[in-house]
Amino acid sequence: MTLRAPLFALLIAASAPAIAEAQAVEAISVWGRRANELGRATSASEGRIAYADFAVRPLLRPGELIEAVPGLAATQHSGAGKANQYFLRGFNLDHGTDLAASLDGVPLNLPSHGHGQGYLDLNVLTPEFVHDIRFKKGPYGAENGDFATAGAVAFETADHLHGDGLQAWVGENAYYRAVGSKALSDNLLVAADVSTARGAWSTPEDLKKINILGRALVGGWSVTALAYDADWNATDQVPRRAVEIGALGRLDAVDTTDGGETSRYMLSARRRDLLRGLDAVVYVQRYKLDLFSNFTYFLDDPVHGDQFEQADQRWVYGGSLTRRWTPIDGWSFRTGGSVRVDDIGKVGLYRTTARARREIVRQDALTEWSAAVWGEASRRFGKLDATFGLRADAMGADVKAGDPRNSGTVGEVLVSPKLALAWRISRSFEAYADAGRGFHSNDARGAVITVDPVTADLVERSPLLSPSDGAELGLRWKYAGLSLTAAAWALHVDSELVYVGDAGFTEASGATRRAGVELLADWRPSAHLNLTASYAATHARFVGDPPKGDHIPNAVSSVLSTGASWKLGETSTLSLTWRRLSAAPLVEDNSVRSRPTSLVNAVFVQAFGRVSLMVEVLNLTNSKRDDIAYFYVSRLPGEPSKGVDDVHFHPVEPRAVRAGLKVNF
């Protein structure tokens, strides 16, 4: 019995289409674990994590599910309904510019977004709905395109349920959650996740969130409808100076009207044939966000305050197709293509007070499109498997800005070569060498901008596509219940300009170079105990001799995480996780640094037949460290008009206990 009793289990069968077309074939539900990648992987830093490996993870919020990927961390500096901050390979991925993610083949990142480029909101996930996580780090896979610079993560849900069930959770700070699922027939299921929470903050967060999932198997296609809606109040980061003198508490807010509301509705159809290597996906999405934030308080407007609203409303249409071929003896080919259109009816930035709009900074509409084709050719040469890849991306946009001077059209094309070598030294030992070019797109508004929307000064445009080049050497070893992997990597990102959604203009950012090592251990000394540990260290710097210094702000130098899962008996299990984020520079000259943060979470389950009792303890040691910190100028009432340079931090949430009851019908 796992700790988070599943709504979905891993379905192992010939293929979903075959099941739908041949009803005589019986579906078999199997508890899967971390896959053995020897002989299949093309790098040391890729892998697959099955449900049984992350079902036992205690989670404060859905986005932390991504921490099942070794070396990846998720934090938050605002309300629970906002996208997380992600840390991977020396990137502060605010909020996903260099980390691509998908759900059942549908891309989740949002380009030219009102808050930040590549905005990645994983609150659309319900952890119990996910049964499989696949990841690839670095720009070495031809199938991964925009935003997959540091890596790509693919979340998969199951076509069948492992029995119907209902969960009910209660916890401190008025936390309530219900998760339920029902198979209406062999080919039709529905599931829902509803939660509310006051939160630990002085200003009630009042989170209200609902996720609804429906899936039908029709004629070999898996048709999925997903609806997500949330609204919340936010306690953003607070200035350290105010907390140290007692003017503010750690859990207080300067502007108590910050917060937001968002929704995302997705309809997709997918057809997969494992025998032919076919994977076809078509989708449509409707997305909305209204986000209210105030980071500088009274610096720009001492009378009304500095709160601003970021709004985004769009339709997203697209699809992708992948196919495996073996037309030549000894060679294997994979080819694919994708198209996507973001019809952004409104993306805006407004000055507000208590969520009431006072002034339009800029309000635009745009249509952004992208198309890609890619191919990989693989062949074995003795003990060496070689994969040669090539990807071509075309992207364009038509921006209709509120200020006609910032309107325009733009288009660019990028070709990205890839190479992956895997040397099977023995049945238990494999070595890898990988290299490739990747990219992320920049906000289309920054690619056509002419004048600053506030000052009307002339500004420099950013390229629409920003390439990066990377390489990696790795090892993978497996013996009995122990698996070890190691990777050494380097990544160079070209000089670029970055569009700042909080201000509506572009700012310069020089070329960067990152290098690091990653280590992963997975040990199962017995059938009752599983131990995991991962360590990722990164050296991140600006290239050349920047006048302010060469350190990259918020580039965390190391992420260390460990986990243990004990099956205490036939009916009880205990799981612990520990994650440590190292200190990071907050300014380019490294004169101000953040503090390291460690978190311990635990979860216990006791089964009583068809009923299971679950107890979760989050932040077990009641750490009072920072979830994230920044250094910038802000102004509180009574302070000098030019403001005060200070560290602004968002604390980790205090220790919280939650209890859940799961009933299998």
Strand content: over 45%
The pLDDT mean sits at 90
| Secondary structure: number of strands | 37
| Total count of helical runs of at least 4 residues | 4
The largest sheet, given as strand count, sense and whether it forms a barrel, is: 22 strands, antiparallel, barrel
Helix content: under 10%
Using only CA atoms, what is the Rg?
24 Å
Distance N terminus to C terminus? 16 Å
Specify the structural class.
Answer: mainly beta
Which outline best applies? Answer: globular
- Uncertain runs are 1-32
General description of the model:
The protein is globular. It has a 22-stranded antiparallel β-barrel. It has 4 helices and 37 strands. The protein has 665 residues and is mainly beta. Residues 1-32 have low confidence and may be disordered. The longest helix has 6 residues, at 16-21.
Keywords:
665 residues; mainly beta; 22-stranded antiparallel β-barrel; 5-stranded mixed sheet; 4 helices; 3% helix; globular; disordered N terminus
Topology overview:
Layout: E1 11-12, H1 16-21, E2 28-29, E3 46-50, H2 51-54, E4 73-75, E5 85-88, E6 91-93, E7 99-103, E8 106-107, E9 130-137, E10 151-157, E11 165-171, E12 175-185, E13 188-197, E14 207-218, E15 221-233, E16 238-239, H3 240-244, E17 259-273, E18 278-293, E19 308-325, E20 331-353, E21 356-381, E22 384-400, E23 408-426, E24 429-441, H4 444-448, E25 465-479, E26 482-493, E27 496-500, E28 505-509, E29 512-526, E30 529-542, E31 558-567, E32 572-581, E33 597-608, E34 611-618, E35 626-634, E36 644-651, E37 656-664
Parallel strand pairs: 7-10
Antiparallel strand pairs: 1-2, 3-9, 4-5, 5-6, 7-8, 9-10, 11-12, 11-37, 12-13, 13-14, 14-15, 15-17, 16-36, 17-18, 18-19, 19-20, 20-21, 21-22, 22-23, 23-24, 24-25, 25-26, 26-29, 27-28, 29-30, 30-31, 31-32, 32-33, 33-34, 34-37, 35-36
